[in-house]
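Subject: sequence -> structure tokens, single chain

Hey, anyone have a minute? Need the predicted structure for the following. Not urgent.
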Amino acid sequence: MAISTLKDFHPTQRTALTLGTFDGVHRGHQALLERTAAWARAHSVLSVAFVFTQPPANSLGLPKPLLLPIRKKLEKISQIVEHVLAVEFSEVGEMTAEEFVEKILVEQLHVVHIVIGPDARFGKGRRGDRALLERLGARFEFSVEVVPPVTVKQNIISSTAIRESLRAGRLEEAREMLGYTPTLWGIVVHGDGRGKQLGYPTANLALEQNVLVPAAGVYAVRVRVADSQRDGVLYIGSRATFAGASSSVEVHLFDTDEELYGLELEVQLLRRLRDDQRFDSLDALRAQIERDIDAARAVLQ
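Reply:
Had a minute. Here:
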């Protein structure tokens, strides 16, 4: 897996390159990355993704929650192209579009082909666009290829649309745009033991703070821990049945009581079973958990 920073990467060969934030590495992003890799193979050059670790808006005081932890995003991208450049927006944010192309893309990265989407923008004030790239390409001898947007039901796939789907609990919609199952990663931490008291022990997950948490509710999930895979139910919510309880993300794994503290779980959200809700008694909550488990088992089979 070839991932480096901008200051450390000085290729000795020519490159085909695409650039962007690639938040979520959804099907539209995959089209750009795959086309870059294909062109590079056909022309015997190095395929490179120039990747902002976070959306530029996050550096400008308008933060967006991420669809993937940064390390997982970079891993996904590295599965498509040969080299990934992980770049902080502050490293190039003050460069004009012309300066960015000449100093970074041409002089440092030796680009001979650039793959972009139709609405690509770059450089200070987002003043760089396709037309400018093509003019600079004629000057610096690189070609520009525009990949059309990928659509679902005539709607252009975007990270913003996927965030909206996940916040609303529309998993199928998000999955169709992502091209893979929506997934959370979290470290198992100590909770207050409520699940164990109810007879259904849960692993409490600490997620990275800047990653989007889907809609509150109960989900049927498939969980990878170490080298094994388990089925379970995931709860996201405020635990309103318990007075004074805080919000939590916790998963109950079927047919196991193994110790998981400190381990990272990869949780694939396969179906949202119901909304979060408050119960009048622990018995009512326990009965609902049993129904949730039955429903999740049916989905996962």
